[in-house]
Write a structure and sequence with these properties.
The protein is of the alpha/beta class and 323 residues long. The protein has one domain: NADP-dependent oxidoreductase domain (TIM Barrel). It is built from eleven helices and ten strands. Strand 4, helix 2 and strand 5 form a beta-alpha-beta unit. The strands form two sheets. It has an eight-stranded parallel beta barrel with strand order 3-4-5-6-7-8-9-10, surrounded by six helices. The chain has a two-stranded antiparallel sheet with strand order 1-2.
């Protein structure tokens, strides 16, 4: 595994982290979830990315992670960097959603109970809700650290117009923003263009989720929508309408470059994200142990020639393929 320092801090993260957004809830196979978490840790993936609403049902990913930690990885807590978040809808009533102090602190307490942890290494505001003043949300994060419930704080998906304000409030309180989390992939360059440099200029590490565009950058949709895939599910985050001819063709062209490099398309897409030196870590969202193993083999070929980058950029510069 390769490790990188996180922004202007002494914290090192693996370049690949394991995300529990999908595939670790009660509706999923527990044995597979356990195998992925244990394998990841044994191969240097010491950063695990959770949120209070991950499942389904919401909260079940945290419970399952806590159970696996207790039953299979006892004694290794201090070798891990564990993150959770709050801000999306979690429980009924007006306090179970949003970025208020009420929601964040109650959510953090609930997440600690579900995981069985004494503290999180980093706790995020999962989103800006469009209503709560950022001063209130950032103060909640500051107090979570001062109460000993988290060592560091982060922000996720915050719009560029509010990023700097968040960083300023946190820095003034001497609780700097350790991590800024954004969706980013070859098909989704908006954060790379709009958010990354602001984070880097303020000493915040950058961590990317959905690096494979919900599976579009794996090659699985080149010949239609496979049964059981994300795009085939009505409740999935990748809709059938998003599997456009333009994106399929771009995936096909990118796959040819990956083949020349001796990589799968997914491996090349992951390496491409980490070619941006501002990126600290990329969150893997694997469904099977074999997928996890395949993703980690990206470490065997992380560099690009100028000619390869030029060919890739010519393909992905088409706005018609962007999310």
């Amino acid at each position: 595994m390769i490790y990188k320092y996180c922004g202007h801090s002494g914290v090192q993260l693996p370049v690949f982290s394991l995300g529990l957004w999908h595939n670790f809830g009660d509706v999923d196979d527990y044995a597979t979830a356990r195998d992925m978490i244990v394998y990841a840790f044994e191969h240097g993936v010491c950063h695990f990315d959770l949120a209070n609403n991950y499942g389904p049902p919401p909260g079940s990913a945290e419970r399952n992670f806590g159970k696996i930690l207790k039953e299979d990885l006892t004694g290794h807590r201090d070798e891990m960097f564990i993150a959770s978040k709050a801000g999306h809808e979690m429980w009924e009533g007006v306090y179970g959603d949003g970025s208020s102090r009420k929601n964040l602190i109650a959510s953090c307490d609930q997440s600690l109970r579900r995981t069985g942890l004494d503290y999180f290494d980093v706790f995020y505001s999962h989103r800006y809700d469009g209503v709560t003043p950022v001063e209130e949300t950032m103060q909640a994060l500051i107090d979570i650290v001062r109460q000993g419930k988290a060592l560091y704080v982060g922000i996720s998906k915050y719009p560029p117009a509010l990023q700097q304000k968040c960083y300023d409030i946190l820095a003034e309180a001497h609780v700097p923003c350790l991590l800024s989390q954004y969706r980013c992939s070859m098909f989704d360059p908006h954060a790379q263009k709009n958010n990354f440099q602001v984070a880097a200029d303020n000493g915040s590490g950058i961590i990317c989720f959905s690096p494979l565009a919900q599976g579009l950058l794996t090659g699985k949709y080149l010949n239609g929508i496979p049964e059981g895939s994300r795009a085939a599910r009505k409740e999935g985050f990748l809709q059938e309408s998003q599997v456009t001819p333009e994106r399929v063709e771009a995936s096909r062209q990118l796959g040819l470059i990956a083949q020349e490099r001796g990589q799968s398309l997914s491996q090349m897409a992951l390496a491409w994200l980490l070619a941006d030196k501002r990126v600290t870590s990329v969150i893997l969202g694997t469904r099977t142990l074999d997928q996890l193993k395949n993703n980690l083999e990206t470490l065997n070929n992380m560099s690009f020639s100028e000619e390869e980058m030029s060919r890739i950029n010519a393909i992905i510069s088409n706005p018609d393929i962007w999310f």
